Amino acid sequence: MDQFNRNTYKKQSFSQEFLNSCFGRIIILLVVLFVLFIVAVMTVPTDEAIRYEVNDNIHQCLQNNDSTKLDAIDENISNISRTFSHADTTLTNQDVYKAYLKYNTIAIYNHTALKTVYLHSNRYPQGTRVGIALFSIVVSTVNYNDMLLDLIPARGPYNERLIKDAIVPDEYIGENPNLKPYHYQGNPED
């Protein structure tokens, strides 16, 4: 007697078994990740390109500083647009940019498949990340608060008193009222 659905129970080929097995899917995922890793290593930008892009992003950050300094959403959206645009350096306030160059330094750190860019200053001696270079793109993460643009003393003169003496005005403002316990506790004679 011949079965009518014999083809549905046919043994699968090795490639079909490999693709449908958990081990096969893990191997395919690892191969894809390895290829992406090799492409990432080959397309890491040079230090000069990274420095140019970061300075361009800092120019844009100094130009667009017209909103609240603590608004993280605006900064993140601006960073996305800074990644794919270029600054007009003639619009940057030159005094502010000179202060940026005076008080801040850029350091580029190499990793296996990417590079990170840190901005070092007296405020952040360990550095704060202002960019990530990966796949020939420098992604900006610069924030206006990351930059040190002026130096002011952290505290006033050291011999100054913290609590100052009260200043007595020259004009007469009256005498203090005569407060007795019955004003706020009620009249004890009642």
Biggest sheet strand order reads 1-2-3-4
* Continuous helix count: 6
Total beta-strand segments: 4
Helix content: 25-40%
% residues in beta strands:
5-15%
Terminal-residue CA separation = 119 Å
Question: What is the N-to-C succession of helices and strands?
Answer: HHHHHEEEEH
Summing up helix and strand content along with how strands pair, one would put the structural category as alpha+beta
The major pleated sheet works out as:
4 strands, antiparallel
Summed over residues and divided by their number, the pLDDT gives a mean of: 79
Uncertain parts: none
Estimated radius of gyration: 34 Å
Task: Identify the overall geometry.
Answer: elongated
Q: How would you characterize the overall build of this protein?
A:
With 190 residues, the protein is α+β, with helices and mostly antiparallel strands. 38% of the residues lie in helices and 12% in strands. The protein is built from six helices and four strands. It has helices spanning 14-20, 22-42, 47-63, 72-83, 94-103, 181-185; strands at residues 105-110, 115-120, 128-134, 137-140. It has a four-stranded antiparallel sheet with strand order 1-2-3-4. The mean pLDDT is 79.
Write the layout of secondary structure elements.
Layout: H1 14-20, H2 22-42, H3 47-63, H4 72-83, H5 94-103, E1 105-110, E2 115-120, E3 128-134, E4 137-140, H6 181-185
Antiparallel strand pairs: 1-2, 2-3, 3-4
Helix pairs in contact: 1-2, 3-4
